[in-house]
Design a protein that fits this description.
The structure is a single chain. It is flat, with a radius of gyration of 23 Å. The protein folds into two domains: about 1-110, no CATH class; about 130-225, Chitinase A, domain 3 (Roll). α1 (about 1-20) packs across α2 and α1 packs across α3. By secondary structure, the protein is α+β, with helices and mostly antiparallel strands. It has helices spanning about 1-20, 40-50, 55-80, 85-110, 115-125, 145-155, 160-170, 190-200, 235-260; strands at about 30, 35-40, 135-145, 180-185, 205-210, 215-225. The two termini are about 35 Å apart.
């Protein structure tokens, strides 16, 4: 709980700069007593890739967290708690952490990972990637656009039965089979659904787009795939692992560079 509050606290510091600068065309996500959360603030925090990976429910929770935190922060301001020396020190420390992480992230983005590095990592850690892969039985609702998909997604999360939503909204013939695609494999024509299902629990909702349609989907069961794991199946995971390992290297490298230019460092 404490870690969650600290994360939200730092998040508020990051968002405050974006909440004051929305232009006339900026998309608002929430507003609390004149303080606005803009879509651009979302993008600044999560990046385009991170934002694209969020489900509508996760976006809603993020927005609700911001509203709750803003209400608490505004109340603290009214009580002038922001003038407390200890609070000022914690704010200053949180800002330093944000700036330091931004510096490390900027250097990390400049890091290029070659095909040889990826494949070498795969060979060295091959045992980690030999676990059986799963196939997923996918049930889906086809919709004409993203807005419709997010609307149906939200209705189901609020209690609408998945099959009822499918019969009411799905625009494809597969509706006659209750939207059941059967089992999808990593190398099948529907591998997009397989990749998306990997990040979900059984019966948890997801959204994907394919060929100008959007789909709200879930997997109802899984089984071991006959497909043998390969380098390509784990490419994204390998890249993430390498980048995480390089974060520590970059941290030490930056410190060496900066300390070599800053001689006035004293410990008392």
């Amino acid at each position: 709980m404490i870690k969650h509050l600290i994360s939200l606290f730092i998040l508020l510091i990051l968002l405050l700069s974006g909440c004051k600068s929305g232009g006339a065309q900026a998309e608002k996500l929430a507003e609390v007593n004149g303080e606005v959360l803009y879509l651009e603030s979302f993008k600044a925090i999560l990046s385009e890739d991170g934002l694209a990976g969020l489900t509508p429910e996760q976006k809603r929770r993020f927005t609700e967290d911001w509203v709750n935190l803003t209400l608490l922060a505004q109340s603290a301001d009214e009580q002038k708690l922001d003038q407390d020396p200890a609070v000022k020190e914690r704010l200053a420390y949180a800002q330093k952490k944000v700036k330091a992480n931004a510096l490390i992230s900027a250097r990390l983005q400049q890091t290029k990972i070659s095909e040889d590095q990826l494949f070498s990592y795969f060979r060295i850690h091959q045992v980690d990637f030999q676990r059986p892969m799963l196939a997923y039985s996918i049930q889906r609702i086809a919709l004409p656009d993203k807005l419709s998909a997010e609307n149906v997604f939200q209705q189901i999360n609020q209690g609408l039965d998945f099959v009822q939503a499918l019969r009411r909204y799905s625009t494809e013939d597969l509706r006659a089979q209750n939207g059941m695609m059967g089992f999808v494999e990593p190398i099948s024509a529907d591998s997009l659904f397989w990749k998306a299902a990997q990040g979900l629990e059984s019966m948890e909702l997801g959204i994907v787009s394919q060929k100008d349609l959007w789909y709200v989907f879930r997997y109802t069961e899984s089984k071991e795939s006959v497909h043998e794991p390969s380098f390509e199946d784990h490419r994204a995971e390998i890249k993430d692992r390498i980048l995480k390992e390089k974060q520590s290297e970059i941290y030490q490298e930056l410190l060496r560079e900066i300390k070599s230019k800053n001689k006035q460092i004293y410990y008392y």
